[in-house]
Design a protein that fits this description.
The chain is of the alpha/beta class. It has helices at 40-48, 65-83, 97-110, 113-116, 179-182, 199-202, 212-221, 240-248, and strands at residues 3-8, 21-26, 29-33, 55-59, 91-96, 123-128, 133-136, 139-145, 154-159, 165-168, 187-191, 226-230, 255-257, 264-266. It has one domain: 4-Layer Sandwich (Metallo-beta-lactamase, Chain A).
Length: 267
């Protein structure tokens, strides 16, 4: 059974939930997507029951702190396990070409040399170009440039074992360049910074983000069947699901989900 494990749901400013990241699981292991902004990724993986030695494939979408800094901890901890003989196989990290140098710079500045030297030996960084396809956990994963105006960012799409399409659209609003990946997809993971009714408070458009209503209207227009919203504010976390569903459901006829941290979906 394939599962989607939502490790974190918050935006960069969130303190009451972890930054947005997730893991796709099948019988071959886990595919980690982003890692949040710090060593909280280790806590989330522990809570989710995901052992570090079962993570061999990681995708890093872009360079912002709430996505990349947790990756430093993943490299450091897995490198330690490699040196201790507690990690079999290699770690493969996929990211767009420009991000390879950024990640290497941060790692070299913050991680001990004995761990850094494993990069290129047991830890591999794979630079991606728009449209590249990589075999990961038995999936043909196609990566695409979302054409961010802030920092270069990639998303991806793949076909699940049951034939359903699964699309990760990063943490910015849908753009026309993503049409072939989003149109009629079975599962779309899309950001929703806040409620449309609270747009004046949170100012999502100024930050190149969108609202629940906007995301749901887009998904309805493009024939999405299941929509998962993430990368949200956390100022009323106890009622987030209730409020977001109330605003989004009238705009979207498919299945709408507003997960909490560590929520699991059977795909």
């Amino acid at each position: 059974m394939e599962k989607l494990i939502i490790l974190g749901t918050g935006n960069a400013n969130a303190t009451k939930c972890y930054n947005t990241c997730l893991a796709l699981q099948n019988e071959r292991g886990y595919f980690l997507v982003d890692a949040g902004g710090g060593n909280g990724i280790l806590v989330q993986l522990e809570k989710a029951g995901i052992p570090l030695d079962e993570i061999h494939e990681i995708f890093l979408s872009h360079e912002h702190t709430d996505h990349i800094l947790g990756m430093v901890w993943m490299i450091r901890m897995i490198a330690a396990r490699i040196r201790q003989g507690r990690y079999e196989g290699n770690l493969d990290i996929y990211c767009h070409r420009d991000l390879v140098d950024t990640l290497l710079t941060i790692v070299r500045l913050t991680v001990q040399g004995k761990f850094v030297k494993l990069i290129g030996e047991r830890i591999f960084l794979h630079p991606l170009e728009d449209g590249d396809v990589k075999e990961i956990l038995g999936y043909s994963v196609q990566f695409f440039d979302i054409q961010s105006i802030k920092a270069k960012q990639y998303g991806f799409a793949l076909t699940l074992q049951n034939g359903n399409r699964f699309t990760f659209a990063g943490d910015e609003p849908y753009r026309e360049c993503e049409y072939e990946y989003v149109k009629n997809t079975d599962w779309l993971l899309h950001e929703a910074f806040c409620l449309y009714s609270e747009r004046e408070r949170f100012k999502p458009y100024e930050k190149c983000h969108t609202t629940v209503k906007d995301a749901c209207e887009m998904a309805e227009e493009l024939g999405v069947k299941n929509l998962i919203l993430y990368h949200t504010e956390d100022k009323n976390l106890a009622r987030r699901k209730e409020l977001y569903l109330a605003e989004g459901s009238p705009c979207f006829s498919g299945n709408l989900y507003v997960p909490g941290d560590l929520e699991v979906f059977e795909l």
